[in-house]
Amino acid sequence: MEFEKLSEEKDKNYSTFSTPAFIEDLNGELQQELNKQWNLNANAFTEQSITGNPWNQGHTDEEGNFVPASLQNYYYNLSITDIPKGTPAISVSWEAFPHRILYYLGDNKPSTNDYKLNQQQLLELADTGFCQDKGTTITFKDIPTKLCPTPDWKGDLQKYGPYGPRGWQDEYCEWSVTRNSENKITRVDFVCENPEYWYTLWRVSPQAVAQKYQETLNYGLPDNSAYLIQVNVEDLYLKDPATGKNVIDPFTQKPAYNPLNKWNSGPYSLRGNNSSGGAMHLTSSPNTLQTEVGLAGAATVQRNIGNINPQTLICCSQYGQSYRNSDPFIGQSVNQVVEGPPSSRVSLANPIGLYIQMPNFSNYQLFDDPKLPTNAKVSDCWHIIRGHEILIDPVTNSPFVGNFILHAAFQIPESWIKAGVTKTVSDIKITANGITSPLQWAGQIAQTFHVGLFARALTEEELEPVSCCVSLNNPTSDKNLPAAQAQPIQMMYENLWQAYYNTKVTNPVGFPMSLATNSVIVPVPVRQGDQNLRIVLICSTAVTGENNSLPKVKASHPSIQITVEKTSGLQEVTYAPPGNSYPDTYNLLTLIVNIDKNTPTGIYGIQVENPGNNMPEDTVAPGFINVFPKL
Fold first, then answer.
1. 506-565 tens-digit pLDDT
2. Do the beta carbons of residue 287 and residue 174 sit within 8 Å?
3. Which helix (DSSP H) or strand (DSSP E) does residue 414 occupy?
């Protein structure tokens, strides 16, 4: 089924892609609207994953037209696929503590680096972005640029990324730590909620977002606690960095959302006077749901190098980031499921998302205190605030084998505090590598639980022949190929882009970066009849032609007219698009978009054609424009 037809039939499929963990943050018509919008966004991510990279190398036909290479993808769209009742979901999980910190900086045996930081230093780095070394405060060391087939320490080095206030927490799990005046931990918030959901919730109800922030970050605190906070919706507004004024979203006509607002930025939660900080959703640039879906889709492609070694496979397929716990393992697991036996197609199971798994408390040791309630245990300090420990799989009508936790806090229970317990999280001990020590760092907790996703496989009769490795060379390096096809990456309203791109974000290694890296790639919302919308398109491998002619951009429906503004030309921007770990240089086109009043509502794709490319009509990148009914 064509994606546009799927969108036209959305009334039948509103709840196909359910909100993460089946969570309902709204009521009545507002929740229904959120369900509709989330379903369309998730469909867009899925179709983009199935389509893959629009500019895969191909060949020129006898008439000089570019024909993209065929790449067999075995990822399916669950909203248009018959899934037999009883088909089980497969759990894929990995440790939440960032493996790249251990691999690139730790004292490993056999050695993988020259830095050889000890366990305490690594834990401090993971919590704060800094650590002490011989009386000096240091941050992350430089690491190799070239990682395939193995890291080249003798070649070019780059600053440790991803960049951002907690960008290094890149296993789809991030945390923020609250400490008291004695520097003891009183609470840790762990999150794996994708940012795309919060953008969608914001579009429906900014007030609900502020309310959920406040309820979540105050969860489990006594009414008289000095750590209670008040979250105002104004705290979450995106500001123009030049004027300090609110940036208005042209679609909602309300202030836009800042994902790195004062309550969701960095690894610290400061409470009491001048409170700030916390963790509500993922902020590290590769920690997005679209990335997860895209990685799963890319991993279904069968390669002629096999799937025994996850590093070999990720280098061959060029998806994700090497040496994370997550990406290589996700890719290998999905690829092996597709290969079988039996050979299968794969999709993430509904509700798609990333989920914290229950910790292993066997190595924890609770402090002694006569005021502790009878049968008190360390696991009482683990509070599931959003999501579920147990969730029923609607396909099997049995519990999923795994947990669907979106947000958890580790803190002393309110009932213990009311009983007179004055100890803190730091008074709890944990044993690791044969050494028992107090909980000084949140990373010690992160090492005791996993983050996971759930996939569902459907038997496929026969797989296509395996594909060769993705070329690392630019397609233009082959003299028999035309200039590379331009790949659209991200679209948003011009005023939003300018605010995100011009807002600078600090990070421990001091690398220049902008808030655009922490935005999300979701379809641009427009309405039937909208005219002269100024929208920017960021893409890669876009080029100018003779007389500085610009690429052409058109939508997959003729009633959506797109004109590339000539006066703005083809600009260069440098950032890490959401989903990417490191920044690069991309192309930006300014578009004037007109939506006919009779354009069917739903999601539409776009095509970007470089001068002289002569692209086929059906070469469309799906999921870039979302047409809503006119008001």
1. 999 999 999 999 999 999 999 999 999 999 999 999 999 998 999 999 999 999 999 999
2. yes
3. helix 414-418
- Kindly tell me if the per-residue pLDDT of 156 is higher than 60: yes
- Name the pLDDT band for 473 (thresholds 50, 70, 90): very low
Question: Taking a C-beta distance cutoff of 8 angstroms, is the pair 316, 480 a contact?
Answer: no
- Which amino acid, 294? G
DSSP letters spanning 505-520: ---TT----BGGGGS-
Contacts of 159 by beta carbon, 8 Å cutoff, 6+ apart: 140, 142, 509, 510, 511
Task: Quote the pLDDT of residue 71.
Answer: 53
Q: How many alpha carbons lie under 13 Å from residue 310 in its C-beta half-sphere? A: 15
CA distance 370 to 419: 10
Give 356-379 pLDDT, tens digit per residue. 999 999 999 999 999 999 999 999
| C-alpha R_g of the chain | 25
Residue owning tokens 């009849």: 529
Two tokens, residue 618: 């059906």
Judged by DSSP in three states, 587 sits in strand
Task: Give φ, ψ of 293 to 5 degrees.
Answer: -65, -45
Q: Please report the DSSP string for 81-110 in residue order.
A: S---TTPPEEEEEEESS-HHHHHHHB--SS
| Alpha carbon 10 to chain centroid, angstroms | 25
Question: How far from the centroid of its chain's Cα atoms is residue 369's Cα?
Answer: 42
500 three-class SS: helix
Where would I find the H helices in 535-589?
none
The tokens for 211 are: 């309310």
* Mean pLDDT score, 256-280: 96
Q: Which residue has the tokens 């979106």?
A: 406
Kindly provide the b/e burial profile for residues 309-337, where b requires at least 16 CB atoms within 10 angstroms of the residue's own CB: ebebbbbbbebbbbbbbbbbbbbbbbbeb
Give tens-digit pLDDT for 411-425.
999 999 999 999 999
Q: Counting beta carbons within 10 angstroms of the beta carbon of residue 445, is it exposed (0 to 12), middle (13 to 18) or buried (19 or more)?
A: buried
Q: What is the pLDDT of residue 614?
A: 79
| 71: amino acid identity, one letter | L
Residue 229 in contact with residue 214, Cβ under 8 Å? yes
Nearest to 171 by CA among 294, 295, 321: 321
pLDDT higher than threshold 60 for residue 481:
no
620 vs 47, 120, 355, 470, 577, CA distance in Å?
Answer: 11, 50, 32, 21, 20
Predicted model pTM: 0.93
Could you give the CA distance from residue 349 to residue 479 in angstroms, rounded to a whole number? 43
β-strand pairing of 185-191 with 174-179: antiparallel
Contacts of 388 (CB under 8 A, 6+ apart): 21, 22, 403, 404, 405
Is residue 465 exposed (0-12), middle (13-18) or buried (19+ Cβ within 10 Å)? Answer: exposed
CA distance 488 to 493: 15
Beta bridge partners of 188: 177, 410
What distance in Å separates the CA atoms of residue 558 and residue 598, rounded to the nearest whole number? 11
Residue 69 CA to residue 127 CA, distance in Å, equals 44
**DSSP reduced 3-state for 128:** helix
Kindly state the tokens that stand for 176.
């923020």
Please state, for a pLDDT cut of 70, what percent of the chain lies above it. 92
For residue 318, pLDDT beyond 80? yes
